[in-house]
Design a protein that fits this description.
Length: about 400
């Protein structure tokens, strides 16, 4: 593999091109409490859980992320991000796959992007390969983005000057976005879903009875489009580098709410406001606020819920040390009031993180995360984790 990459890099250089590869190797060990994690088909809010309320366990994970960028000319860039992972026993989902794959056409003021990509709204996941420079886990808001929303389409961005930009996106293949929020609820973690990955849903009674035609093994956030309808998004950004950054985004996936190939196309829309004040390399205050709705089905077989999430973090870097504190709130609000499970949920989470740069490529970290709240018709999903991490950058 390394030899092939070297040959490609040499060939690109010989033709005046550029080919770069970067990535992370990350290992984590966590002491966790609470319900089994959602990724094992349980009710827990965290990426790793114990066996139940009052129980604790030690869980280890490892993740390899690889990003490659090819720039054959000054106006064309191709990017791909691949991921592989080892998770605790019983975890479901794919062990490897594609996170992003897109092509950019760009000049000084315009950029056209086509493929599968993150929208770039996050104020915490601003490091390469959609990683966070502030904490090991992401906020509940960005945990959901990483799990269940990633456009497959075309994005147009206009930057008239250094300070601002306007963007618009047309996309498909995100028809089931909203299923996790409505049926599982919010979670706090750092797991990035890959293309065509089946994610588990909790063992709810309605999924076994009411929605008898719904596939039983889970939901697929990114797959071949279900309803043939095109979603859209629009955003505006204004920034003063190293001082402040504000971005507003509106998105509507325009799902038709009908059943297709064993899955429902959810109609999901949201407003998202992000703010960053200060210098990320010294002291920064960052936060995001999201409010939206998601619905599927019709007649007596339907789900309708509003959702909300917001977080605020403060992070300071001194020498090789970084300290971060994050607090967040999230909820879902029942709107269908059907005989099936209630979607009502209210929760909050706080996270404290210490990071230390051992060397240029090696970073170690320790983090405390606690998630509390209540969700109707499910066992107590609260949990706590104390995690140590080593990450090697290449």
């Amino acid at each position: 593999m390394r030899r092939a990459i070297l040959i490609l890099a040499v060939a690109a250089s010989a033709h005046g091109q550029s080919f770069t590869v970067n990535g992370f190797l990350t290992g984590r060990e966590a002491y966790v409490t609470g319900q089994p994690s959602w990724i094992t088909g349980g009710f827990g809010r965290l990426g790793a859980g114990a066996r139940g309320v009052g129980e604790h366990a030690y869980r280890g994970t490892a993740v390899a992320q690889l990003g490659a960028d090819w720039r054959p000319t000054g106006w064309l860039t191709a990017h791909a991000q691949l991921l592989g992972r080892a998770e605790p026993s019983g975890s479901r989902g794919k062990r490897a796959g594609v996170v992003e794959a897109f092509v950019d056409l760009h000049n000084e003021h315009w950029r056209v992007r086509g493929g599968q990509f993150f929208l770039g709204t996050s104020r915490e996941n601003t490091d390469p390969l959609w990683t966070s420079r502030y904490a090991q886990t992401f906020s509940a808001l960005n945990t959901w983005i990483g799990e269940e929303f990633r456009p497959v389409g075309v994005d147009l961005q206009w930057s008239p000057n250094f300070y601002g930009s306007l963007g618009a996106t047309a996309f498909r293949n995100n028809d089931t976005s909203g299923a996790l929020l409505a049926w599982r609820g919010w979670s706090v973690g750092n797991r990035l879903s890959v293309y065509d990955e089946v994610l588990p849903l909790p063992p709810l009674r309605s999924l076994q009875t009411t929605f008898t035609k719904q596939r039983r093994d889970g939901t697929v956030p990114f797959e071949t489009d279900l309803d043939g309808r095109t979603g859209y998004s629009a955003r505006v950004r204004y920034s003063v580098p190293q001082r402040a950054n504000v971005i507003y985004t509106y998105l509507d996936n325009r799902g038709d709410r009908e059943l297709h190939r064993g899955e429902y196309a959810w109609a999901t829309k949201f407003h998202l406001l992000g703010l960053e004040v200060g210098d990320p390399d010294q002291l920064v205050l960052a936060g995001e606020y999201m409010r939206g709705s998601t619905t599927m089905g019709r007649g007596v077989m339907f789900v309708d819920a509003d959702f909300f999430a917001a977080y605020l973090l403060v992070s300071g870097k001194s020498g090789r040390n970084r300290l971060t504190a994050r607090y967040e709130l999230f909820n879902t609000e029942e709107q269908d009031f059907s005989p099936a499970e209630t979607n009502e949920e209210n929760g909050r989470s706080w996270t404290l993180t210490w990071m230390f740069d051992v060397s240029t490529p090696l970073r170690v970290a320790a983090e405390l995360t606690q998630v509390v709240g209540d969700r109707a018709d499910t066992p107590d999903p609260d949990g706590r984790s104390v995690t140590v991490e080593a990450r090697w950058k290449f």
